[in-house]
Amino acid sequence: MSPALVSNASAKGFKKESGVARLLGSGSAGIAELAVFHPVDTIAKRLMSNQGKIASVSQLNTVIFKEYAAKPFGRKFFSLFPGLGYAAGYKVSQRIYKYGGQPFMRDYLSAYHGEKFDRTFGKGSGKAILHATAGSLIGIGEIILLPLDVLKIKRQTNPDAFRGRGLFKIISDEGFGLYRGWGWTAARNAPGSFALFGGSAFAKEMLGLTDYNAATWGQNFIASIAGASSSLVVSAPLDVIKTRIQNKNFENPESGFRIISNMIKHEGPTAFFKGLTPKLLMTGPKLVFSFWLAQTLIPAFDKLM
């Protein structure tokens, strides 16, 4: 039985925004997110990559700032911007692909499979699950951007892996090795993106919205909190595994299953949720911020077109 939602909107009904509006809205969200939250992302990645227990403030300082831990505050702060070029290329591309791409997948599912979602889950619920499914399918395809993510994470957590090599030299040397961990990334993105778009859609259903594009800034903000929180919790264990696969030296790769085995053996089951609290407190707002902007700006740009 479908949950009791206020809206009774059909999954087959949808409002199609222009491609330009989707590009501008999602791209603007990615640029704004990068400018505000890149240091936060670096801290979260370094905490997730730390394999020991942090017993003191000085040890935490070393984990976060590495060799700059004893430097003045200004130098320490700017050490949180490693790989900004890779981060810009990845983050903006990722947000355009995910936030701008999900509506295209949603349009396709609505046009050709909307009635099936309505029959299976009921109106309202079917529409929300269709949005979640579109997000999940787009999330799986996100692995095409994996090399940029790998380079960004290595810059943030393991800069020695570069040893003075430039971008094109690394691509030449590593080739498809830059896609290492693609399976784990897809496994993480599928439920994470499902929860992100699904949580947001269900929140809008609970708010009584039949046209999601008609949501106010405040309604989009509430929906973004619901989607982002759901996504982070669901994807947390696989996100830790993905990060550890990607931050290894290029010449010393380690499989995801070996990483899982070592984590259980040496760190215990709670290791799979390392970094979750900082992610909810710091990365959570980053995802809420960008998702909120994208959901608000895409319809706004569509009206201006």
TrEMBL record:
Q: How does it sit in the membrane?
A: Multi-pass membrane protein
**Magnesium among keywords:** no
Q: Tell me which domain of life the UniProt entry assigns to the organism this sequence originates from.
A: Eukaryota
Q: Which regions are annotated as Solcar repeats?
A: 218-300
Where does it localize? Mitochondrion inner membrane
Q: Which GO terms describe its cellular component?
A: mitochondrial inner membrane
* Record key words, sorted: Membrane, Mitochondrion, Mitochondrion inner membrane, Repeat, Transmembrane, Transmembrane helix, Transport
Q: Matching InterPro entries, A to Z?
A: MCP_dom_sf, MCP_transmembrane, Mito_GTP/GDP_Carrier
Please tell me where this protein is predominantly located: mitochondrion
Has keyword DNA repair? no
- Record-linked PANTHER family: MITOCHONDRIAL GTP/GDP CARRIER PROTEIN 1, MITOCHONDRIAL GTP_GDP CARRIER PROTEIN 1
Write the protein's name. Mitochondrial carrier domain-containing protein
Source organism (scientific name) = Tuber borchii
